[in-house]
């Protein structure tokens, strides 16, 4: 009997449930007696509610209640530390006062027997405002503050960093390049809308919620209502994509729970697609100025990277824009600075490789511009600046496979056939462009717990309160458990998505495999040893049969001091072929080849699938995605799938090649995995814009590269 299943391309264990529709998502749970809630939202970006009339809505058919700031119960809103540290702002308090801080802020909640009744009544609520001057466009943003709430392995990262003397080095540099790169606001746009069903039973609350972190939802709602977190159960077995929008608990969850408490009924609240642009975060609009100084032979002498982004007036959310710049390439003189502009918008959040994907767009675009200026091959330029260690943290890398990634991806791509001259390669009337970029994403590893329960019939149930928004956590954890226990995978069941299960960290930051996987491994190891010892057998199935009763073992894992000894990151290289129509300005991505050094790969099938998803996300970022903000009022006129373009099947290149270079990193975590969820998107956008430059001779520094920018 072979049980080696780590490293095997196992198909999703929940695949059948998903394709047959038996996997239940938040809004699909059948809760008897459920009433329906619809949110009324502000139509101004800043000011006060002068008056609000809910009388006709109250009288409308089927309506149970209409809550506004005038009649809603006051909530405790205790401080809660998640995503944005309370030191850097206080989350939006819903229906607590007459203040409006952003367009689309909830100002009333209508609850009715039927959804359609609630939707109709919501149109009858009338508000008059006392508007105040609003800033919703970063171009007009007022005072800026240092951005400083980002954390790295539990430590706060500085908003500013300096080594050497960048100003003097720039003044003396043989080659100098100074450019600004702009990424507009983008929204997560998962297929599944955010939804919550809330049901109170006395002072106990059950929430069926779309979330990437069930325990955080419980903790945050407990803080909002001033009740113990143990009183709240959060259930979230399946998440239909999230990309970061489910990392924190947004105001609509509070509204669902509030509505349920006031009406004494279970309440379902599902956001519309349009509402998804007004209350569950977005990738912030960023402006990044990068100045590079180098010698003629392509050695970096100085980097200055100045990043600037939007945030709300009530919270400082800071993206990790500058982190890669601090260590990715060797450079003795580096200055980085991150600032945020408080504006009349709702708080942005993490989205699809947050920070790294944006910062790397600027840095790897600038590196390509430098390669062109110096007439050096872009891979060669990076090899000449390959660092021996992390020069920011002054630590060795636990492992770093950039060289192998450049080599493997370049070879697969056929890079040596590239004519470096822009506009030199054609396919009929199409201009061909080849571009590349480096990718990196931190190895995140956080405390996690798991429980393994072995049964006399030779099966096992393994649990941890993690989430699976799509990467395949149900499957990969089953693999880790089966291999560790030495049981066939069919006899192992892994369960996640419920606060009654052992606590897991946020399902984000590419940390689930490392963290939950290591906890699952530890719990299974313990359970197996225990069962073998107590059952008096060498075979686990035999030991369990002899024992005749279940055996349970729990494990809690947490990082050691490796973060003080090593700089730990996944690295990769992305190569792209585009074709550009010279008359219409249309860009098509034909090929993407990505090579990654991401530690051990537990499931090459789901991991490849995840990388393809990241690459396609990169195409969206580079060529299509843009949440347009109307500077007059903060509205998003394209808050729908007709006008917010995302890549569809027809936009996916026929060739997406994913290479994992072999890496055995004993330092990062017990499973030796680094995570691939986000690195797969990092580097794709600059590889595409670098390819577009190669195709057309036009350098586009403002995403997305829509046809108008190429004409
Ligand atoms: Mo990810 S943006 O950490 O879900």
General description of the model:
The protein has 711 residues and is of the alpha+beta class. 25% of the residues lie in helices and 24% in strands. The chain contains 16 helices and 27 strands. The protein has a seven-stranded mixed sheet. Helix 8 packs parallel to helix 16, helix 11 runs parallel beside helix 12 and helix 15 packs across helix 16. The longest helix is centred in the C-terminal third of the chain and has 24 residues. The mean pLDDT is 96. It binds dioxothiomolybdenum(VI) ion. Dioxothiomolybdenum(VI) ion (MOS) binds next to loops.
List keywords for this structure.
25% helix; alpha+beta; binds dioxothiomolybdenum(VI) ion; 7-stranded mixed β-sheet; 16 helices; 711 residues; 6-stranded mixed β-sheet
Main sheet: strands, sense, barrel: 7 strands, mixed
Q: How does the helix and strand content classify structurally?
A: alpha+beta
Query: Which sequence of strands runs across the widest sheet?
Result: 3-5-1-15-12-13-14
Low-confidence stretches: none
Multimeric organization: single chain
Q: Could you tell me the mean pLDDT?
A: 96
Strand content: 15-25%
- Helical stretch count? 16
- N- to C-terminal distance: 63 Å
The proportion of residues forming helix, as a percent range, comes to 10-25%
Bound molecules: dioxothiomolybdenum(VI) ion
Report the principal-axis shape. Answer: globular
Number of E-type strands: 27
In short:
The protein is 25% helix and 24% strand. It has 711 residues and is of the alpha+beta class.
SSE layout:
Layout: H1 15-20, E1 35-41, E2 47-53, H2 55-59, E3 63-68, E4 99-100, E5 106-112, H3 115-122, E6 126-131, E7 145-146, E8 151-152, E9 155-156, E10 160-163, H4 166-172, E11 175-183, E12 195-201, E13 204-209, H5 214-225, E14 232-235, H6 251-263, E15 267-270, E16 286-294, E17 300-312, H7 323-327, E18 334-343, H8 356-374, H9 378-384, H10 402-413, E19 425-427, E20 430-442, E21 448-454, E22 460-463, H11 473-485, E23 492-495, H12 512-535, H13 540-547, E24 551-557, H14 562-565, E25 569-580, E26 587-597, H15 604-624, E27 655-660, H16 684-696
Parallel strand pairs: 1-15, 13-14, 17-18, 22-23, 26-27
Antiparallel strand pairs: 1-5, 2-4, 2-6, 3-5, 7-18, 8-9, 10-18, 11-16, 12-13, 12-15, 16-17, 19-20, 20-25, 21-22, 21-24, 25-26
The structure holds dioxothiomolybdenum(VI) ion.
């Amino acid at each position: 009997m072979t049980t080696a299943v780590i490293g095997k391309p196992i198909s999703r264990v929940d695949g059948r449930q998903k394709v047959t529709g038996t996997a239940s998502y938040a809004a699909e749970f059948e809760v008897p007696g459920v009433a329906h809630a619809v949110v009324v939202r502000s139509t101004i970006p800043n000011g006060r509610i002068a008056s609000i009339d809910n009388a006709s809505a109250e009288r409308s058919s089927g309506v149970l209640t209409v809550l506004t700031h005038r009649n809603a119960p006051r909530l405790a809103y205790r401080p809660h530390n998640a995503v944005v540290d309370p030191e850097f702002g206080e989350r939006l308090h819903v229906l607590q006062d007459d203040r409006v801080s952003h367009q689309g802020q909830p100002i009333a909640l209508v609850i009715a027997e039927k959804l359609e009744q609630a939707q109709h009544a919501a149109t009858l609520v009338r508000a008059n405002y006392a508007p105040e001057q609003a800033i919703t466009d970063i171009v007009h943003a007022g005072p800026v503050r240092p951005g400083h709430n980002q954390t790295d392995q539990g430590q706060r990262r500085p908003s500013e960093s300096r080594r050497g003397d960048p100003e003097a080095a720039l003044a003396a540099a043989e080659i100098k390049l100074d450019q600004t790169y702009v990424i507009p606001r983008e929204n997560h746009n998962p297929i599944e809308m955010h939804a919550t069903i809330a049901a109170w039973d006395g002072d106990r609350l059950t929430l069926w919620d779309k979330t990437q972190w069930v325990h955080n939802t419980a903790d945050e709602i407990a803080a909002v209502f001033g009740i113990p977190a143990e009183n709240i159960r959060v259930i979230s077995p399946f998440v239909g994509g999230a990309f970061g929008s489910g990392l924190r608990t947004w105001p609509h969850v509070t509204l669902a729970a509030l509505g349920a408490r006031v009406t004494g009924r279970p309440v379902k609240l599902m956001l519309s697609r349009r509402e998804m642009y007004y209350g569950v975060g977005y990738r912030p609009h960023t402006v990044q100025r990068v100045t590079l100084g180098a010698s003629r032979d392509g050695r970096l002498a100085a980097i200055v990277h100045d990043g600037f982004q939007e945030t709300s007036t009530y919270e400082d959310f800071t993206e990790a824009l500058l982190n890669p710049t601090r260590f990715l390439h060797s450079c003795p003189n580096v200055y980085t600075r991150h600032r945020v502009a408080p504006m009349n918008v709702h708080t942005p959040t993490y989205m699809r490789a947050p920070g790294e994907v944006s910062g790397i767009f600027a840095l790897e675009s600038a590196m390509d511009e430098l390669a062109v200026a110096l007439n050096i091959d872009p891979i060669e330029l990076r090899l000449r600046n390959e660092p021996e260690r992390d020069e920011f943290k002054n630590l060795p890398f636990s492992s770093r496979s950039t060289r192998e990634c450049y080599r493997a991806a370049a070879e697969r791509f056929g890079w040596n056939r590239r004519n470096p001259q822009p506009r030199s390669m054609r396919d009929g009337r199409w201009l061909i462009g080849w571009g590349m970029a480096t990718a990196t994403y931190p190895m995140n590893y956080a405390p996690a717990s798991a429980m393994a329960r072995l049964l006399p019939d030779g099966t096992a149930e393994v649990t941890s309160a993690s989430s699976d928004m799509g990467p395949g956590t149900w499957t990969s954890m089953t693999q880790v458990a089966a291999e560790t226990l030495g049981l066939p995978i069919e006899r192992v069941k892994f369960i996640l998505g419920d606060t009654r299960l052992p606590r897991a960290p946020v399902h984000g930051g590419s940390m689930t495999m490392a963290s939950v996987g290591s906890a699952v491994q530890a719990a299974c190891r313990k359970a197996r040893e225990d069962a073998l010892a107590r059952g008096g057998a060498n075979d686990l199935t035999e030991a369990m049969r002899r024992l005749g009763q279940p055996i349970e073992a729990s494990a809690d894992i947490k990082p050691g001091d490796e973060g003080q000894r090593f700089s730990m990151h996944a690295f990769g290289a992305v190569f792209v072929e585009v074709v550009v129509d010279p008359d219409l300005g249309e860009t098509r991505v034909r090929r993407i080849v990505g090579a990654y050094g991401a530690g051990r790969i537990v499931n090459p099938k789901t991991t490849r699938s995840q990388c393809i998803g990241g690459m396609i996300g990169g195409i969206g970022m580079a060529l299509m995605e843009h949440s347009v903000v109307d500077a007059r009022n903060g509205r998003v006129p394209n808050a729908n799938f007709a006008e917010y373009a995302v890549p569809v099947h027809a936009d996916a290149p026929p060739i997406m090649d994913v290479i994992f270079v072999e890496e055995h990193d004993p330092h990062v975590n017990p499973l030796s995995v680094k995570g691939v969820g986000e690195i797969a998107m990092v580097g794709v956008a600059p590889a595409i814009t670098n390819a577009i430059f190669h195709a057309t001779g036009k350098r586009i520094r403002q995403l997305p590269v829509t046809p108008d920018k190429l004409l």
